[in-house]
């Protein structure tokens, strides 16, 4: 079956612009996660969705970051007024709700802010 | 404050020999641990897990050992194969992090030499 897909795969944007990153999880996976990986760092948890609600947004680095999920499926991560420190690979993962230990990751979106 | 640490950024091993990847953690409340493998331009894929009630879990060529008193886990790959060359991340969850929020290390790049 289809895995987790993310778009775009690469995004270059100018400082101060807004960007939207999209994640399409595996069908039937009600749990969805966003992470980011900055250069030389581990995966940093950003937000977790169960269905359309986000019980844990604790990892969002600032109020410039927001995420939503509609129809219990596709999720978008929006970064407003991008800064150079936002440059990273943004990874999305999904899982069955009872199997958060086995998260299926997408290939990521590499964001470069110039 | 890195709660999960992988102190070796890289490791080279001869094909057929054992690869040992190490991971240390600081939070004694962590109770579930994972290893993920990541190839270039792909998202991480789940490899093996271990609960804190065990000290060893084996799956084919992969074995994870957990030493709770030392807050240390390791992944053994025997025998190592060139296809095992990838970045390996350890991750931990539990305590106030909840069951879905995994804290990842920075990864160890394994190179298996033919």
Question: What are the salient characteristics of this protein?
Answer:
heterodimer; A: 114 residues; 7-stranded mixed sheet; globular; B: 114 residues; mainly beta; Immunoglobulin-like; 6-stranded mixed sheet; 11 strands
Q: Choose one word for the global shape of chain B.
A: globular
According to DSSP, the number of beta strands of chain A is: 11
- Separation, N- and C-terminal Cα atoms of chain A: 37 Å
Summarize model confidence as the mean pLDDT of chain A: 92
Report the top-level CATH class of chain B.
Mainly Beta
| CATH architecture term of chain B | Sandwich
Overall tally of domains of chain B: 1
Strand content of chain A: over 45%
Order of helices and strands of chain A: EEEEEEEEEEE
Rg of chain B, nearest Å: 13 Å
Helix share, percent of chain B: under 10%
Summarize the biggest pleated sheet of chain B: 6 strands, mixed
Radius of gyration of chain A: 13 Å
Please give the share of residues in helix of chain A: under 10%
In the CATH scheme, what's the topology name of chain B?
Immunoglobulin-like
């Amino acid at each position: 079956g289809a895995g987790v897909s993310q778009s775009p795969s690469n995004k270059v944007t100018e400082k101060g612009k807004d960007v939207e990153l999209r994640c399409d999880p595996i069908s039937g996976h009600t749990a969805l996660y966003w992470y980011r990986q900055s250069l030389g760092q581990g995966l940093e948890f950003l937000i977790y969705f169960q269905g359309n609600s986000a019980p844990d947004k604790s990892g969002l680095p600032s109020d410039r970051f927001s995420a939503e999920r509609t129809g219990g499926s596709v999720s978008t991560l929006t970064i407003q007024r991008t800064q150079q420190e936002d440059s990273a690979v943004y990874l999305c993962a999904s899982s069955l709700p009872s199997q958060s230990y086995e998260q299926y990751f997408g290939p990521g979106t590499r964001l470069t802010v110039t | 404050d890195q709660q999960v640490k992988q102190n070796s950024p890289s490791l080279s091993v001869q094909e057929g020999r054992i690869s040992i990847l190490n991971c240390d953690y600081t939070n004694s409340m962590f109770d579930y641990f994972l290893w993920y493998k990541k190839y270039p331009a792909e998202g991480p894929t789940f490899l093996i897990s271990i609960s804190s009630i065990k000290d060893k879990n084996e799956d084919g060529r992969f074995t994870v050992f957990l030493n709770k008193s030392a807050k240390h886990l390791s992944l053994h790959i025997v025998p190592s194969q060139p296809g095992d060359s990838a970045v390996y991340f350890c991750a931990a969850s539990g305590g106030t992090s909840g069951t879905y929020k995994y804290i990842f290390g920075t990864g160890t790049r394994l190179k298996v030499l033919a």
